[in-house]
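Two folds, back to back.
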Amino acid sequence: MLKHQIEPYKEFTQNYYTDRDTAHDFRHIERIISRLELLSQEMSPSPDKALLYFLACFHGLGKNICDNSLFCERVKYFLLDLEWNETQIKNAFQSLERHIINPQTVEEAIVHDANYVELLGAFGVAKAFTTGGARKQTYEETADIFEYQYLDRVAFITPMGKRLAEEKRNYTKEFFKRLRSEL
């Protein structure tokens, strides 16, 4: 059943990410997708693949769905073609709205962690300074913002996400400690 395969969701959404910055383009979505299986381990109940793939691929498009009725209709017809029903579509849109701020389902928790895991570790540091440079921030400003907003504040939900975050958080703290001593 196409509904439970990742490819239709990727094909539908890919072009909607072409105008995004490098931290939020379709490669970001592919990195999220690449973490789904690992983060699904130890989750109970097992995630609904259709909802999981929807959330992963539409992760950065939630605002577009809610704010643009034409896009909303396109997405609804796309999902109906994949044999989703109206209730499933309504629930998926609600999941998309809350998966980053207030995840409530297994699928939301997995995509939440798949997104946030790249905020920490070497990739997270690189991403922070790329974003900081684009905003014309100093190294100190970028470090302050990153440490305050992300380092200890991002909570992980899945068992695997918690383990990955601990190791990446330790690396990131050590990096910023060393950076501050060199600055």
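---
second:
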Amino acid sequence: GSAPPAPRPAVRFLHAHAGHLNPAAPVELAVARGRLTKVRVGCGACPGHRLGGRVVQHGLGWRSFGPPPAGTMLRVRARARDARHQLRRVSPVHIRVSSANSLLQLTMGPDGGTYGVGQPVAIVFNQPVTDRAAVQRRLVVRTSRPVTGAWHWFGDNVVHYRPRSFWPAHTHVSVTARLGHRWLAGRWMDGTHRISFSIGDAHVSVVNVDTHEMVVRDNGTVVRTIPVSTGRTQYPTHGGIHITLSKSPEVIMDSATVGIPRNSPDGYYEKVYWDVRISNSGEFVHAAPWSVADQGVANVSHGCVNVSTANARWFYGFSQIGDVVEILNSPNPPLLSDPGMADWNLSWQQWKAGSALPVGRGGGSTHRSGGVAG
């Protein structure tokens, strides 16, 4: 008698979970018991109602040119040659693409450029992370110099990485979030993301509220001692370690933005020059020609570090984003919810406690050139 017919080729969707596809990844099909010759993927939300793509791997699969529209239904019709090289129709297959809110996406920084020794790595997710440990396992840090560091979660959608102590000067840092296109803890992961940046010279400035001076060090060497005036009794400058967040040659400072009415005795609306921002709560190192007589003598500002115009201009040129500015002897504690103070005013034990994974026996993840920290 004649041989039984070869089993009909069948296609299946790769990267599908529970009957849904990842809306951030190209659609991939695989064929069993045959080789594809023609594939048509219907999609009501696609141009021409068809998702474009091509046959790959000599007929063993098909891949779309880009991701499908979120929340749509895909309908696959295909032809393939079976094990006996006979052209056969493949049974139609339908599958839904997950909605956009099923995606766990991120932004990560800094990326590119040179930063100060206090600069943390920051990752912000678009929605709460339901399994922090699973995500953290996919975060990889590489450094060109030996570094002990760890991740710390600030809530369910923000995680930072910092070393135990400040970065070594002239370290190159690269970070990879290897989320892939997979289903993880109730969310689709949104691919792989990479950043890299360099650490420049070690700029560490210490402002002493009691002695009214700022000592500026470059790679450990004192390069300038600057008379300052910090926050008066009613508005003391926050203490602790700040980092430089941004700088601008000119800023309009408005007391109303920090809760002081402009028309009150302490109110102001002023164009201020050579501004180095050290907190998001309104603290800067900036030129204050109006308080030069008090600089080095008394604290009269609304919380900023006042310096002369010449010193402000010099410090502005000296500063890098991520530089360290430490405020000593202030009665006002660090504001840990502020990005300028969030990272370095926690002890190493407190920092490690914010990791979703155990930090190594030595206190952190130590890694050299090409090394990895989880």
